[in-house]
Design goal:
It is built from seven helices and no strands. The chain has 132 residues and is mainly alpha-helical. The radius of gyration is 14 Å and the shape is globular. The chain starts with a helix and ends with a helix.
Length: 132
């Protein structure tokens, strides 16, 4: 169920790029069981409220790309993964695995490797206390 919730959040984040609607409105049409919908709501609200912290992390680590040059789907998979990695108690291995699976299903050809590398690096920097 959590994977379906993450997929729904990814679709909402993609829509947000164009419409900039509040999280509650983006999730209006999402059909998930109540527990999964609550999880999706928490993730979406968290990503949107922490974008000012998450986006510079992506920008600094997406070597040769930068935030604005990343494909929209790849950028939003990273936002979702970084939010979950930095602000939730989901095990980091699960966060990275789920983000890579989203990238395989919805991202560009290079997305799985890039997303795995960035999330793994941020996780390791956080463990060492070097995350800026």
């Amino acid at each position: 169920m959590r994977r379906k919730a993450r997929e729904a959040v990814l679709r909402c984040l993609y829509r947000w790029e164009f419409l900039q609607l509040p999280a509650e409105e983006l999730l209006t049409d999402v059909d998930l069981p109540p527990e999964a919908k609550a999880f999706a709501q928490a993730l979406l609200a968290g990503v949107l409220s922490h974008r000012d912290h998450i986006d510079p992390i992506i920008d600094e680590r997406a070597h040769g790309w930068g935030l604005d040059r990343l494909p929209l789907v790849d950028r939003n998979i990273l936002r979702l993964g970084l939010y979950e990695l930095l602000y939730t108690d989901t095990p980091p291995e699960v966060v990275i695995d789920e983000a890579v699976e989203l990238a395989k299903a919805y991202g560009t050809e290079r997305a799985p490797a890039m997303i795995n590398a960035i999330l793994d690096r941020v996780w390791k920097e956080g463990r060492r206390g070097t995350l800026g």
